[in-house]
Design goal:
Mean pLDDT: 94
Largest sheet: 4 strands, parallel
CATH topology of the largest domain: Rossmann fold
Distance between the termini: 64 Å
Low-confidence stretches: none
Number of domains: 3
CATH architecture of the largest domain: 3-Layer(aba) Sandwich
Order of helices and strands: HHHHHHHHEHHEHHEHEHEHEHEHEH
Structural class: alpha/beta
Strand order of the largest sheet: 2-1-3-4
Length: 387
């Protein structure tokens, strides 16, 4: 075994970048055993060991910075949710990534992503003026002084043609429910959640600062998000920067509209069997499990089917932590586990409430050639069909 260099400066730098709980880790290994990488074969799964990463960071030993290891974490939160010491493992991983990305050495595959976010305000290489293209044909109101909610649409749903359907569905449902909402438009920037998780703290601060200034100038007080990632960032990252907002995922708003009789759907309108996948950032990170299920129960007249691993035990789609931009071989994708779980229930439709999950599970469904027996749908799309 080759000797390893110990860099105490690196250990201290990681702590300064946010790994404040790194030394809390007692190396029990529960995190590694619960990690979804243990569920799939392949070189990355063999190499990624989050317990070992924590240890290397604790003592400043080189090795954690290997790209295949450092950027494999999808920040699903399974390890952190179950850690007996309360170690903030995701913050530690983010800080380790920041030690590399902050030094100007991001992985080659992520440079266009980070570069686009710097220059365009979004990571999808889309020009700012195209941010509102999802609104085409819809009469989406502009946010104004008398508007109650600001609707923030995830960048993915602003630029990806498939994901635009989610933004359009959410907006139409809010309109149908009589919600006072509006959008700002091209001046908006990415929330920066994935950029920060990738370790580009400078970029996150730039994006967040622009949004904080813009939202304050428009009098934003209540926000509805289409993505649970945006919701999480506005409620946590931005709160640390002084934001004082109420933030809701669209499922929370729609569930309340149904309960108050302001929105209704055609129950039992078809014979499709629907199962629900809990997104990590809506469920484990966000604590929202019931709202989407309540909406599906109203729509279909019965509760949705449950996957074998659900709620707190839900398996990650692998889109978080910047992994949505990763190239992963067939057979090693977390999303494939979700597809097989859904097929095992006899479901015709696998529903979820996150643009990233839709993207990842659609790819997984196609790679497994299950698209003829299972359809991937965002909850908002199903609800719009049921009006």
């Amino acid at each position: 075994m080759e000797p390893k260099s110990i860099l105490l400066e690196m250990r201290d730098y990681i702590a300064e970048m946010g790994a404040e709980t790194l030394d809390w880790c007692m190396q029990c290994g529960l995190c590694t055993n619960l990690c979804p990488w243990r569920l799939v074969p392949g070189e990355t799964g063999d190499a990624f060991n989050v317990r070992l990463m924590q240890r290397l960071g604790q003592v400043g030993i080189e090795g954690f910075e290997e790209e295949r290891v450092l950027f494999a974490c999808s920040t699903c939160g399974t390890c952190q949710h179950n850690c007996p010491r309360g170690v903030k493992i995701i913050d530690n991983v983010r800080a380790m990534r920041a030690s590399i990305v902050g030094g100007g050495m991001p992985p080659a595959g992520l440079r266009p992503v980070l570069g686009s976010a710097h220059s365009n305000g979004n990571p999808w290489s889309g020009p700012r003026e195209k941010r509102i293209q999802w609104q085409e044909g819809l009469n989406i109101p502009a946010f104004g002084p008398d508007t109650e909610y600001f609707l923030f649409v995830c960048c993915h749903s602003c630029y990806d043609p498939r994901s635009m359907k989610i933004a359009r569905a959410v907006a139409q449902l809010l309109t149908k429910g009589g919600v006072s909402f509006g959008v700002i438009g091209a001046e908006e920037s990415c929330c920066g959640e994935s950029m920060r998780k990738l370790g580009d703290e400078e970029l996150f601060q730039k994006l967040a600062g622009a949004n904080l200034e813009l939202f304050a100038s428009r009098g934003v007080r209540r926000i509805i998000t289409t993505s649970p990632h945006c919701r999480w960032s506005f409620m946590n990252d931005y709160k640390d920067l002084g934001a004082d907002w109420e933030v809701f995922h669209y499922t929370e708003i729609l569930s309340d509209l149904v309960k108050t009789g302001k929105l209704s759907f055609t129950a039992g309108r078809d014979g499709r069997k629907v199962a629900f996948h809990d997104p990590c950032y809506l469920g484990r990170h966000g604590g929202i499990y019931d709202a989407p299920r309540e909406l599906l129960a109203v729509l279909y007249g019965k509760p949705p089917g449950e996957l074998s691993r659900n709620r707190e035990q839900s398996v990650c789609c692998a889109g978080g932590g910047g992994r949505i931009w990763a190239e992963v071989p067939t057979g090693e994708r977390f999303g494939e586990l979700r597809i097989m779980d859904a097929v095992a229930t006899g479901a015709n439709v696998l529903a979820t409430s996150c643009p990233y999950c839709v993207n990842m599970m659609t790819d997984a469904c196609n790679s497994l050639e299950k698209q003829d027996v299972l359809e991937i749908k965002e909850l908002s799309e199903l609800l719009l069909e049921g009006l």
